[in-house]
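Internal tracking record. Fields below are filled automatically when a chain is submitted to the structure queue. Please do not edit lines marked as system-generated. If the sequence contains nonstandard residues, flag them in the REMARKS field before resubmitting.
Queue: standard
Priority: normal
Entity type: single polypeptide chain
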Amino acid sequence: MTTRRRAREVVLQVLYEEDVNPLRDLEIANQFLAKRMLHNKPLIAFAQQLLVGVRNHRDELDAILTRHAANWSVKRMTTIDRNILRMSSYEMVFGDVPGRVSINEAIELAKRYGNKNSHQFVNGILDRVLRENEANKKEVVSG
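SYSTEM-GENERATED OUTPUT FOLLOWS
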């Protein structure tokens, strides 16, 4: 499978490892991406853009998630859920992936890698992120 979904899975694996081991060599992560993407240049570029974007905007993404995760801090979330939420929020807020597409992809990742309730948790938070992001875009257009 060499699709964007596969790229998201690989990025999730890298983000998970970086969350658990923050001192990991970034070059090893890049090599891992290339190998797992079967050296497919467009997918590697997509995966690297997503990975670098989440890394560069982690604090902003965590603030967004904290705002929308009622009674949950980002640190209390499972590592899988936290990184799925970061990736999808990045795509919606800073990327060019349509919000509903990003949410659907995140739900599929949560079903596959999270616990039995992860997909509902992820869906609820990302729906609120999407609504806020769409409202912000409308304000910019009408403002």
